[in-house]
Write a structure and sequence with these properties.
CATH architecture of chain A: 3-Layer(aba) Sandwich
Number of strands of chain A: 7
CATH superfamily of chain A: Glutaredoxin
Structural class of chain A: alpha/beta
Structural class of chain B: alpha/beta
Radius of gyration of chain A: 19 Å
Oligomer: heterodimer
Number of helices of chain B: 7
Number of domains of chain A: 1
Radius of gyration of chain B: 20 Å
CATH topology of the largest domain in chain B: Glutaredoxin
Shape of chain A: globular
CATH superfamily of the largest domain in chain B: Glutaredoxin
Strand content of chain B: 15-25%
Strand order of the largest sheet of chain A: 1-4-3-2-6-7
CATH class of the largest domain in chain B: Alpha Beta
Helix content of chain B: 25-40%
Chain lengths: ~190, ~200
């Protein structure tokens, strides 16, 4: 109870702030709804295109790759953290992509809808392959295909950090900072 | 001599303490042990079913072997395979291979497992693995994931049931191929294959 009480208070105050902000009649409802829904395009990729992206032949920046699906609870739960990391570290030199394993039928519906809700702006792909096995094994031999899975590549295309299951934001952030930090030092 | 003995004892304690600390550090990172190699013998284990009744692997397996499938009640991929898993159990029961489900998801209770089996007409036994004992031993991380063992509990195949969540797109059935090869006295051609699925949420 002693722990829960401050949270409840914070939650109530937040709700009041949010309600008062959003319950106010919008002056321009059309404009507002457009601003709330940035256009999101999810591109279909196959095994070869994904391999080319991960190989990073012309890469100069580190890359974070998140494999996810709208049907995957921990994927949806961790997504706001990824969006935050993308917004924070993209200007500092990190690339991030989200690779959805949803059914191809969802490429124009459920997948972009979720990304819009998340206000996600990283490049988004949907991997459409008849046999996922070679891809899973080529990304990482220890990966079973369990989602979510997150891989951090350095600018040379080597995996420097990976996490299966819901990300640990602090741990991931520290790993990104190592890469982005070293890049800053090198360029000086 | 006495001093040497004390030094040795201290060194031993230090090593053991180090190993304990290292194992704790690994487990907090969520590392799962690697699965046993193909050909390895899986030791017998005992787990409760959804009613709390204990079963050993040896008591549940068929005369020609068993298929252990890590399942979930809430994972859409695992649920996409409910009918296929039941059909597999029906098809091979008479041929001496028993399907055994294992639910290692911490958030899915025995009661939920029981209700799920009833709703989805699953007739094979589903065991509850509350401390991930068997999931850890088999290095299981995803649902659904199958382990095909012969009559002596030797691991012959590990991985997906087939290539596609959508039954209409199935064009390779590695688990059935492994079972059929074994029943025909032939070696298993493809011993592992992966597919995308849900992470097993461990305790």
């Amino acid at each position: 109870m002693t722990v829960a009480r401050p949270f409840i208070l914070v939650a109530i105050s937040l709700s009041i702030i949010l309600l008062t902000n959003f319950a106010a009649p919008a002056q321009s409802p059309k404009r507002k709804s457009r601003a709330a829904k940035p256009s999101v395009v999810v591109r279909e990729i196959d095994a070869t295109s994904l391999a080319a992206i991960l190989k990073r032949e012309s890469a100069a920046r580190p890359l974070l790759v998140n494999f996810w699906a709208t049907w995957c609870d921990p994927c949806r739960e961790e997504f706001p953290e990824l969006v935050k990391l993308d917004q924070q570290f993209r200007p500092k030199g990190l690339d991030m992509i989200a690779v959805s394993l949803d059914d191809f039928a969802d490429i124009k519906t459920a997948v972009p809808k979720f990304l819009r809700q998340m206000r996600a702006t990283m490049p988004a792909y949907l991997l459409n392959v008849p046999d996922p096995d070679p891809i899973i094994k080529s990304v990482d031999p220890r990966w079973s295909g369990a989602l979510p899975a997150t891989f951090l590549y350095d600018a040379e295309g080597h995996v420097v950090y990976k996490h299966f299951g819901r990300i640990k934001p602090l741990e991931l952030r520290a790993e990104i900072e190592k890469l982005v930090g070293s890049k800053v030092v090198m360029s000086q | 001599m006495k001093k040497n003995a004390i030094t040795f004892l201290l060194a031993t304690i230090f090593v053991i303490a180090g190993a304990v600390v290292a194992s704790i550090a690994r487990s907090t990172e969520g590392e799962v042990p690697a699965p046993p190699a193909i050909g390895a013998t899986i030791e017998d284990f005992t787990l409760p079913d959804a009613d709390g009744k204990e079963h050993s692997l040896n008591s549940l397996k068929g005369k020609n072997g068993s298929v252990l499938i890590f399942v979930a009640t809430k994972c859409p991929v695992s649920n996409g395979y409910n009918e296929r898993m039941e059909k597999l159990a029906q098809d091979y029961k008479a041929r001496g291979i028993n399907v055994i489900g294992i639910n290692s998801n911490v958030a899915e209770s025995a009661a939920a497992v029981k209700a799920h089996a009833a709703q989805n007409n699953l007739t094979f036994t589903v065991l509850k693995d509350p401390a991930n004992k068997v999931a850890d031993r088999l290095g299981a991380t995803v649902t659904p994931e199958a382990y095909f063992l012969d009559a002596n509990n030797k691991l012959l195949y590990r991985g997906r049931i087939d290539n596609a969540k959508d039954p209409a797109q199935v064009n390779s059935s590695e688990l059935r191929d492994a079972i059929e090869a074994t029943l025909a006295g032939k070696p298993v051609a493809k011993t592992t294959a992966s597919a995308f699925g849900c992470t097993i949420k461990r305790a």
